[in-house]
Design brief:
Distance between the termini of chain A: 30 Å
Structural class of chain A: alpha+beta
Radius of gyration of chain A: 23 Å
Shape of chain A: globular
Strand order of the largest sheet of chain A: 7-8-9-3-10-11
Strand content of chain B: under 5%
Oligomer: heterodimer
Order of helices and strands of chain B: HHHHHHHHHH
Number of domains of chain B: 1
CATH architecture of the largest domain in chain A: 3-Layer(aba) Sandwich
Distance between the termini of chain B: 50 Å
Helix content of chain B: over 70%
Structural class of chain B: mainly alpha
Order of helices and strands of chain A: EEEHEEEEHHHEHEHEEHHEEEEEEEEHEE
Shape of chain B: globular
Largest sheet of chain B: none
Largest interface: A-B, 26 and 18 residues
């Protein structure tokens, strides 16, 4: 269990300065640190690793104190046992994939070190490239080796700083699931920094939303994205609803598929994905129509019944959070909210065109 | 004369190169990776012999290390030995003249290495020394080797500062460049020519080596 309270000031006060002030705990599973660039995600991660020294605060992992400003404790990086994975992999270019993994493995005899390094490479599926140099590997393979290297050193926590922003979408989708699987197998807590809502929803067990150096919301990823608690959180979460499910059935003659979201079903405009495939869907909050009555004769393929959960007023628009089995946020004008007499608890119907549901991952 | 000058040059230059390579890499590392007060002043002081006329550097070395010099007087009082006019003096002169090239090359080579490689190594539980020898140094090795070759060349060609501090004593402090001068002055043209050819060949080898070492590595 990571217990962190970090305060760090950069530059002078006022508009040019930046102050990070976060306090959180991160336990089992993958904790995603989400926020726009400049929100303090990377600084938070670097402070935990010991690459940045906070001005104030305390960082401890399982009762081992890494940093304590009042007690003047500041363990150097090499004594913290934190694995760190960078966006650009940073494999040692003068060593092969296997040697990169071997570098971090502590064991007495050469034979068991080698066996463990190979096991690590196998765990991430790049044992075939053990003898290759980093330059001869694809981006995805390099990041897999970097993961093997970090996990091989038996860290007490693994910190990942936007590890997948340099790989293509297909590889990213696969690697996200593999990283989640790696966490379940190793049982090391992962702290995963990203600014992609789809990545965050796909991999995160819990989510910390950072904005301008503060945590604005904390919770399950889908709740955070689809049911923001407050205006700052809604602003950071963006316009997209994120839904996760599996392809339930194809409708080839329509060119559509039905996605099972457990508590409801959504029709999407694609029929090329295999049945059972996991998908992460995006539906923009502006693309959803709210109705007080069930609309029957409509071109919209998706009609969901639900109730209003809350309304957030942000300047000239209203963000409505609806509970339709899954949470969905909808952006409407204040005029609509008034005309339909929308308030928490009011039953509503949401209309969503199939073509407004797109696959993110 | 050729043979003795060759032997003295070889001894003086190889020892000077070894010392300069180690000291220069260490200094280059400090300048590239650490912040300390007077850092740029330190860089300027080390670089000074590159810009100063070699005789001026030699003169300063006498003021520093001569029998009545700032440091030399204590050395003399303690041991009764003075560095001036010994082969060690030739080595010191060559080293001081070569050091700037080594420090500049090492600093430049180390500054191009992404410091996050070192952070990765620390996070894998390695200390600073192990990280330096297993990550930083190998990554900067081409630039550092190029610095070693350049330092070797500079030490081999050293004339002015050596003449000031070590004099021109045949069989004792007379290196090849000094021997060429003496041979030429005393009309021994063949000796001068032979020495000039040796030094020219050595210089061509140096240029070739530095070019090979500093050429960007091709992706495999």
């Amino acid at each position: 269990m990571l217990d962190a309270a970090i305060k760090k000031r950069f530059g002078v006060n006022g508009p040019t300065g930046f102050a990070l002030d976060v306090a959180f705990t991160a336990g089992e599973g993958v904790t995603v640190v989400f926020g726009p660039s400049g929100s303090g995600k990377t600084t938070t991660l670097r402070a935990i690793a010991g690459m940045v020294t906070p001005d104030e605060g305390k960082i401890a992992l399982d009762n081992r104190v890494y940093f304590d400003a009042t007690a003047q404790v500041n363990l150097p990086i090499q004594r913290r046992r934190v694995g760190f994975v960078f966006q650009d992999y940073l494999l040692f270019p003068h060593l092969t994939a296997l040697e990169n993994v071997l570098y971090g493995i502590r064991a007495t005899d050469e034979k068991s070190r080698r066996a463990r390094a190979l096991e690590m490479l196998k765990l991430v599926g790049v044992d075939h490239a053990a003898e290759r140099c980093p330059l001869a590997l694809s981006g995805g393979e390099q990041q897999r080796v970097a993961l093997a290297r970090a996990v091989g050193s038996k860290p007490a926590i693994l910190l990942l700083d936007e590890p997948l922003s340099a790989v293509d979408v297909a590889t990213r989708s696969r690697l996200l699931d593999e990283i989640a699987e790696l966490q379940r197998r190793t049982r090391i807590p992962f702290l995963y920094v990203t600014h992609s809502p789809a990545d965050a929803a796909r991999i995160g067990d819990t989510l910390l939303v950072l904005n301008q150096g503060r945590i604005v919301q904390q919770g399950k990823p889908l709740e955070v994205f689809n049911a923001p608690l407050n205006v700052p959180a809604a602003q950071v979460a963006g316009a997209e609803n994120i839904l996760m499910g599996a392809i339930a059935e194809h409708q080839p003659e329509q060119g559509t598929s039905v996605v099972d979201l457990e508590k409801c079903r959504i029709i999407i405009p694609r029929a090329d994905l295999p049945q059972g495939a996991r998908v992460t869907l995006g539906i923009r909050a502006d693309d959803i129509i709210v109705s007080r009555e069930p609309v029957t004769r409509t071109s919209a393929r998706n009609l969901l019944a639900g109730t209003v959960k809350r309304l957030l007023r942000d300047g000239g628009r209203v963000e409505l959070v609806a509970d339709c089995g899954v949470d969905l946020k909808v952006r409407i004008t204040p005029h609509s909210a008034q005309a339909l007499a929308l308030a928490p608890g009011v039953p509503i119907f949401l209309l969503i065109k199939a073509s407004a549901c797109h696959i993110l991952l | 004369m050729i043979w003795s000058a060759f032997k003295i040059s070889l001894l003086v230059v190889s020892l000077a190169t070894v010392v300069v390579s180690i000291a220069g890499t260490a200094l280059g590392f400090l300048l590239a990776r650490r912040e300390f007060p007077g850092k740029e002043l330190c860089d300027s002081l080390v670089t000074l012999p590159m810009v100063l006329p070699p005789t001026v550097t030699g003169y300063y070395l006498i003021l520093l290390l001569g029998r009545r010099g700032l440091v030399g007087r204590y050395l003399f009082a303690l041991t009764g030995w003075t560095v001036a006019f010994t082969w060690e003096a030739a080595m010191i002169a060559a080293g001081v003249m070569a050091l700037p090239l080594m420090v500049k090359s090492a600093r430049a080579a180390l500054e191009t290495i992404d410091p996050r490689y070192e952070l990765v190594s620390f996070s894998l539980g390695k200390g600073e020394i192990e990280t330096f020898f297993r990550v930083t140094l190998p990554l900067a090795s081409r630039g550092i080797l190029a610095g070693v070759v350049l330092s070797f060349a500079r030490a081999l060609g050293e004339f002015g500062a050596t003449l000031m501090l070590a004099g021109n004593i045949r069989g004792k402090t007379q290196t090849m460049p000094l021997a060429i001068y003496e041979a030429f002055i005393s009309g021994e043209d063949h000796t001068a020519q032979a020495l000039a050819v040796i030094l020219t060949l050595a210089s061509i080898a140096v240029i070739y080596l530095t070019n090979v070492l500093t050429r960007p590595k091709k992706a495999q």
